[in-house]
Write a structure and sequence with these properties.
single chain; alpha/beta; Oxidized Rhodanese, domain 1; six-stranded mixed β-sheet; five-stranded parallel β-sheet; 11 helices; 18% strand; globular
């Protein structure tokens, strides 16, 4: 346990170094709640709270799909685990009924919103997503599980453009790039850092490779790999 805390501290310090280098040129943090609300209204899907989903699960009449990558622990009674950017597979899971009731969730809420928008664009009319994702579910005191029924889907290596990374630029939804690899920075890391959260915000949506090279900072691979999302492509 002590070794893990030491490694985690090194990671926090390394990301903070990169963040402080960007801080002077960064914009002010966005109001993430306001953006989410506007997106939900515009795209005609419904964002629900953890308590609302918990109540819905008591008389489940919908498909519950975990769309987060990389794979995380799941909410009990989830029907499938399908990466949010594999819309064809999500559609195959839902079926042809455009009025089918579906709830999507991820870790923070950003991937589920992205998938929800695409499903609405395809004509699905009864799409829900868990606002705040697993983070909100766990903070509300609800359990997660490391399996979905008896079947687990495998994730193939995913690829992202820098423009896609740049969209994930808030503390609640923070992606960063190092050595052409894309990582998601968990919100709980930013809360624990003694130097404050601003440094982390300034690293979100950025390529921090050069900053790490300047400071000759390395991140422990055994921990960082658990937050790996995919490869950066041009």
């Amino acid at each position: 346990m002590k070794k893990y805390l030491v490694i985690a501290t090194i990671i926090l310090a390394g990301i903070a170094f990169a963040g402080y280098a960007f801080v002077n040129s960064s914009d002010e943090p966005k109001d993430n709640d306001q953006v989410s609300l506007q997106t939900s209204n515009e795209y005609n899907f419904t964002s629900i709270s953890a308590s609302e989903l918990r109540a819905m699960l008591e008389n489940k009449d919908f498909q519950l799909i975990d769309v987060h990558i990389p794979e995380q622990e799941h909410i009990k009674n989830s029907d499938a685990f399908i990466p949010y950017n594999d819309i064809d597979s999500i559609v195959n899971q839902i079926g042809d009924d455009k009025d089918a009731k579906v709830v999507l969730y991820c870790r923070s809420g950003s991937m589920s919103k992205d998938a929800a928008k695409k499903l609405v664009d395809l004509g699905y009319t009864n799409i829900y997503e868990l606002d705040g994702g697993i983070n909100e579910w766990v903070s509300s005191g609800y359990e997660t599980f490391d399996y979905i029924g008896s079947d687990q889907n495998d994730i193939e290596t995913n690829a992202y453009t820098m423009s896609e990374v740049e969209r994930h630029n808030t503390l609640e939804d923070c992606w960063t790039v190092k050595d052409k690899k894309v990582y998601e920075i968990p919100y709980e890391w930013t809360e624990q850092h003694p130097g404050g959260q601003e440094a982390f915000y300034s690293a979100c949506g950025k390529d921090i490779t050069e900053i790490f090279q300047i400071h000759n900072t390395e991140l422990p691979k055994e921990i960082l790999d658990s937050y790996y999302l995919g490869e950066l492509i041009n």
